[in-house]
Amino acid sequence: MKTLLPLFVIFLSFITSSFSQDTKVKFGKVSPADLAMKVYPSDTEAIAVILSKIGRVRYDVLLDKYALTEDRHVVIKLLTDAGIDEYGDVKIEYYSYQDYSKVANIKAMVHLPDGTDIKIDNSQIFDEKTNDYWAAKKIAFPGLAKGAIIEYQYTIFQDHMFQPVDWFFQSHIPIRYAELTTKIPDWYEYVVLTQGLPLDKNARDESIETIHYTNVERSGGLVTSSQINHETASIKFITNTFINKDVPALKEECCITTMDDYYSRVRYQLQAYHFAMQPREPVLNSWKILAEKLYQDPVWGGQFKNKRPGSLVLEAAGITVDTSVNQMETAQHIYDYINNNIQWNDMQGYGGMRDISTILKTKSGNSGDLNKLMCAALIQAGIDAQPVLLSTRDNGKPLELYPFIDQFNHMVVVANIEGKDMWIDLGDKNLPMGLLRADVLNSRGWLVDEKDPAWLDIIPSSSSSTYLITGTIDKEGNLNATIESRYTGYHAVEQRTKADDEKEKFGQNILMSGTNPVKLTEIEMTNKKEISKPFQLKAKVINQSVATVTRDKMYLNPLFPNGLDDLPFKLEERTYPIEMNYPEEVTVILNLTLPEGYTMESIPKSIKFVTENNGILASYNSSQTPGKLNVTMKYALKQLEFDPTEYTALKNFYNERHQKFNEQIVLTKS
Amino acid sequence: MSKFIKKNIYLILFLWTGILFGQDRPDYAVSGIDTSFLKNAEAVIRHEETRLIIKSPREYIHEVTKVVTIFDEDSWEAYVIVHYDKYSSADLISVYLYDADGKLLRKMKKSEIVDAAAYSDNSILTDERYLGVRSFGGQLPYTLEYKWKTTYHETLSYPDWHPQHKKESIEQATFVLEAPKDLIIHTRSLNADFAYKVETDGDRKIQSWTLTNVKAIPREISGPPDYEVLPLLMLSPSVFQVGDYTGSMSDWKSFGAFLYLINKDREKMPPFMVSLISQMTSQCTTPKEKIDTMYHWLQHNMRYVSVQLGIGGWQSYDATYVEKNRYGDCKALSTFMKGMLREAGIDAYQVVIRWDEENSLFPDDFMYNDFNHMMIHVPSENMWLECTSNNLPTGEIDRDEQNKKVLLITPEGGKISRTPSIPDLLNIITSQDTIFATTPVRISGREEYFGNNQRSVRSLYNYASPEEQRKYFLEHCHLTIDKLEQLHISSEKSGTSSALAYKATLSKFGNVSGNRFFIPVNAIQPPHNTCPGNTDRTTDFISIDNYTEKNDIYIALPPEYVIEYLPAKSGFEFKGNHYSVALNLENQYIHIHHEITEAPMRLTPAEYNELCAYYTSVAKSNSQMIVLKKSKT
Hints:
The structure holds two protein chains of two kinds.
Chain A: E1 9-10, H1 32-36, E2 48-59, E3 68-78, H2 81-87, E4 89-95, E5 101-111, E6 117-120, E7 125-128, E8 134-140, E9 149-158, E10 166-168, E11 175-185, E12 188-195, E13 201-219, E14 225-247, E15 265-273, E16 281-282, H3 287-296, H4 301-305, H5 307-317, H6 327-341, E17 343-344, H7 356-362, E18 364-365, H8 367-380, E19 384-390, E20 410-417, E21 420-424, E22 444-447, E23 454-457, E24 463-473, E25 478-488, H9 489-502, E26 511-513, E27 516-518, E28 521-526, E29 535-545, E30 547-549, E31 553-556, E32 559-561, E33 578-579, E34 584-593, E35 598-602, E36 607-610, E37 616-625, E38 628-637, E39 641-642, H10 647-661, E40 665-669
Parallel strand pairs in A: 2-11, 17-18, 24-34
Antiparallel strand pairs in A: 1-13, 2-3, 3-9, 4-8, 5-6, 5-9, 7-8, 10-15, 11-14, 12-15, 13-14, 15-16, 19-20, 19-22, 20-21, 22-23, 24-25, 25-29, 26-27, 26-32, 28-29, 30-31, 31-40, 33-39, 34-38, 35-40, 36-37, 37-38
Helix pairs in contact in A: 5-6, 5-8, 6-8
Chain B: H1 2-19, E1 43-54, E2 60-70, E3 80-84, E4 88-98, E5 104-107, E6 114-117, E7 124-125, E8 129-133, E9 142-152, E10 168-180, E11 185-190, E12 195-201, E13 204-214, H2 226-229, E14 232-237, E15 239-242, E16 245-248, H3 252-262, H4 271-280, H5 287-301, E17 303-304, E18 306-307, H6 319-325, E19 327-328, H7 330-343, E20 349-353, E21 373-378, E22 383-385, E23 405-410, E24 413-418, E25 428-436, E26 441-450, H8 455-463, H9 466-476, E27 480-491, E28 497-508, E29 511-513, E30 516-520, E31 541-543, E32 547-556, E33 561-565, E34 570-574, E35 577-586, E36 589-598, E37 601-603, H10 605-622, E38 625-630
Helix pairs in contact in B: 5-7, 6-7
C-alpha cells in the first residue's frame, strides 16, 4: 500500500471511494418456501442444508491496515434435531496473532417456521481467545426449532495478500448456492486454483475506477505547516466471480489424505505485485527463484550456509568433525543427539520461524525446526545434505505447478551418506534415521537446492513383520509354543510405540486364535531402544486352547497375528480413491507338533491370490511330515493408490484373505 | 514452638529465593533419590509447598512451589498447568529445567507459556482457561522446578490438596493453610499420616500438613479410585461470600439453603409459557402424564448450551432467559423444568450431583462441594429428570447418574438423597438372527436393548440420518456384509427398549475348509471380556459392567452338508457372572443359544486370578466350532 504515493505523504483523512457492496442478497430476508421446507429435495436425508454461502472479498486502496476484507453471509436451514445439534452453534475462527486478522460487524438472526424472527444482539456473541495464535467468535443461536433457518454475516479483516482466499464450495452437508466474488486492484496478480467439482460460473471482469483521496503534506521544523491536497487516481480492478449451485454433500471415508483435497474449493496465490510507477515485482516466479529467496532468508537458508548454526549443533552434541570417522556414524550420532535432547512440540512447520541457536536454547521446536538442526549439522560435518519441503497428508497434496511456500508445513532432510541417499525426519522418538514419518508420505517433496531445486518422489520404504511360531499341541487341544517376531520399518515404529503406550498390557493382542486373543507371557523385547535395528519379540504361549476336540477328531483353529484377517473396507461403495501409506509385508511361519495318536485328515490347500497388476498378494502354503505341520502365510501390499472403480475388487481380496487365513485343520485319532 | 516454625519457614523462603538466580542444584541430582522410591514411579516429588492464603470469606490465594523429577513423559507431572477463570487470575511465575545431575539447563521464557481456552467446543461458552508449559526438551530423567499462583476473587469452595498421584513418590510435600483466626475452615485428611502443625500469628491461624517419604503406588487397570488409596486433604469453607450472598457450609442443610436462595424464584414462568403449559397439559389426567408431556416438550424444544452465570457457576439463568433462547446449561434447563412443573401444580427440587463414571467421594459428615451437575427430583412421583438430554425417556437418568449420593435443594435446605438405578435384571440385550448359508449368504436379525443398554441405539434413533445409521451399523458389525438391504432402528417412547432390525447378504459366513464348513460358536459376536492386565495385581479389581445378553442364532443347514460335530452344552459361573451356550438341531436349523451376564464386582487380587480362570473357560467354550461336512454324493 505504501507504494501508492510517495513516502513523505501521511494520510490524515480520506473520502471513501464509491464501490459499495452488491445488494443482491439481503440480510434478514428468507423466502416463505425455504421457511416451509421440511426436507431438502436434492438430498432427502440431509439434516441441514446451506441455502446460501456468499463471500465478497474487497480491497480498499485507501486503507493502510486491514485493506482486505471479506463480507461473508451464510444461511443454513436446520431440518432435523440432529441438524440443530450440529449446526445450531457457530464458531468463526480467525488468526489473531499480532492482530493479523480480526472479525467484526457480526449480525446474526434466526427465522422460525412460524414466521417469527429473532435477532441476536452482541451480548449473545461470545469472544474466545483460544490461544496465543487463534481466536474465535461463538454464536449459540437462540430459539431454535426444527425447520428454523439461521443466518449470519460478518466481516473478516486481514492484511495477508499472499493467499487471501481459500474458499470451500462444498461441505459434508449439501450447499444450494455458493458464491464468491473478489475485487482486487490489478496491483496484485493472482493465480486462481480450483479443485473438485467444476464450478457453474467462473468469470473474470476488469473495471477502471477513480478514487478520490485527500492527503496532507507536513513540513518539519519548529513550526509544522501542512498542506492539504485533493487528488484522484485511476485504478484497474479485477473482479472474479465463482458460483456453484446444488453442490452435494461429501462424506468422509477411510484411507485418504484429507477431505480438503476433495471438496470443491477455490484458492488464490499471489503471483506478482505491480504498483504504480514501479516495475512488476514477481512473487511467484519459479521454484528456482523461491529457492534462491529461501536461501537469502537468514533464519532459513542462512542457517545452512553459515558455519556457526550447524557448528552449534555439533558442539551441543559433543561431536568434533573428523573425516576419518565414517559418515554414517557421525550422522547417526547427530540424529540420536537431536532425538534424545530436543523435543518436538507437536506443531508442524517448514522451519522458517526460529534460528538454530534459539531452538537449541529452548530445546524444543516444530517439525521443521528439528530437521533444520539435523541438516545444518550434517552440512557442517561435511556430509552432503539438503532440506526438502513437504506437505503432510492431512495438510493436503502439494501443488507442483505453483511455487509458493505456504503450501508446505514440514521440512525433512535428504542426505547422501557414503554414496547412499537417505531421508531423515526427526520428531518421533521411535522413528529410525532413514524413515520419514508415516503421516508425511504424501506423493512428492520439494528439494530446496539453491541452484537447482527439484521435486522428489517419496517412495515409502517397505515395512515387514515376520512371525515364527514353534510349538506343540496336546491331546486337549492346548497349545504350548514360543513365538519369535521381527519388525522392520513402520511396523517396528508401530510396535515400539505400542510397547510404550500399552506398557504392561503390551502383548495381549498380538496373536489370535480365530477371534480369540492368545495370551503371550514371558515377553522379551530386543532392540527396544536401538531403533535403527529391527524390533524383536520373543514370548511364550502356555496351555492355550486353540482347538475343538471331539471323541475322534480335533479341529485346529487358525492361528495368526492380530490384524492379518482384517477387513479394512466395510462400506458398500466408495467415492474417492484409496490412498494407502506405505508398502508392507507380513510373513507367518507355523511349525507345530501334533498330539500323539493323531493324523492329519485335512489341511487347507496351498493357494496364492493377487489383485490386478499384482498390487496386493496373499498366500497360504501348507505341508506336513508325520506328526508335524508347517504352514506359511504371507501378505504383501505393493500398490498404494487405487481408483474407486477398484473398490469392489479390493473388498473381495480382503474377504478372500479373511476366508483363507481363517481355515481349519482337521486331525483324526488313529 | 512458634518461633521454631517461623525460623523454618524463613529458611525455606531463603532456600527458594536462591533458585531465582538460576543456580545448579546438585541436591536435585537423581542419584540423591533413595532407590526404593523409584519402583513404580514415573515421577518423584522432591519438594512441594502449596500455600492457601485465605484473606476473607471471599478471597484467597493459591500458591504452589514444586520440584519434581520426571522419569516418564507420560507422567501427570510432566505438564505444568494452571487453571483460571473469570473469578480468578493466574500467574505461572517460573519454570526451571535441570538435568539428571541437577545442572540448570534453562529457564522457561514467558513466550513459551501457552494461555488457552480450556474448552473450545462450539456449544461451550465459558471463561475457563489455563496457562501451561510442556515440551521441556529434557532428556529423561530431568527435574522441573516451578512456581505458580492463582488469586480468587470469589469462591464457594477451596481446592483440595492431592499431593500424590499413582506412580509418584514423594520425598517431601507440605500444605500450608493461612486464614484469619476467627474464620473456620473445615479440613479432613485421608489415607496418610500427615505431620500436622498449627500456630497463630496475630490474627492469622497457620496450619500445615506435611508428608515425607511416601512410596509410589502402581497404576493397575480397573483399580480402586484415588480417594481410597492416595493421600488427600479436603478443605471446605464454613462461611463464604459470593456476589451479594453469604453462604454457609457448616452442614449440608445450610449449603443446600444457600443454593436454594441464589436460585430462588428464577423458575418463574413467563406469560407465554403459562398459557402453553395449561394448553399442553389440559388433556392430562394424572400428574405423571403432565410430567411426561412437559418433559417431552422440553426435550424437543430446548437444547443444551453451556453458558455460565455468576455465583461460582452455581446460579442459574432464569426461566425467561431459557424461554427466549431455547437453550441453557444444566442449571438453566433444570430451573426451567422446575418452573414448568410448578406451573402445573407439581413440586420439584433441584438436585446437585457429581456426574462421573465412578462413584465419587461424598462423605456424610464433611461438607464438600464436589458437584458438577444439576438435575430435578419430583418427590410426589419419586421421579428424577435429567434436563439436558433430548434422548432419555421420562424419568430415566443416565447410567452414570444412577445410584449416586446427591444433595436435594429444598426450601428447607439441603437434604442428602440417593438416585435410583435400573435393576440389574432389566439391563438386557437380546438378539435373534436367522442365517441361510447359501450363496450368497443371507441374514436377517433383530437386536433389542433394554434398560441401560440403550444408550447408543437410542442416540442413533434420535440423531442419526438413515445414511449415518447404515454407516454406523456397517462399521460396527462383525459380519462381512456385502449389501445391507434393510436397517430399521426404533425406540419405545416409554423407554423400555430400543431395537435394531436388519436384512443383509454376507460375502462370507463361517469358513469353508476342504469339504468341511466351520461355524464358530461365537459366529456373530466375539466374546466380550478377556482378563485385562497382569495377574500379579496388588490392588482390588473393580468392574461396574452390569448387563445380560441373550443371543439366539438359527442357521439353516445348507442342503449339501451334514453335521459332523455340534459342541456340547456348557456353562460357567463366577460371582454373579454367567456364561452358557447350548446348541441344538431344530427342524434343519442349528440353534445356538448364548447367555452372558456381566455382574458388577470388586475382587481382591487373589479373586482376580479366579476371574481370569473363568474368562479362560469362557474363551475356550467360545472358540469351539460347529463342524459341517459335505454329504457324500
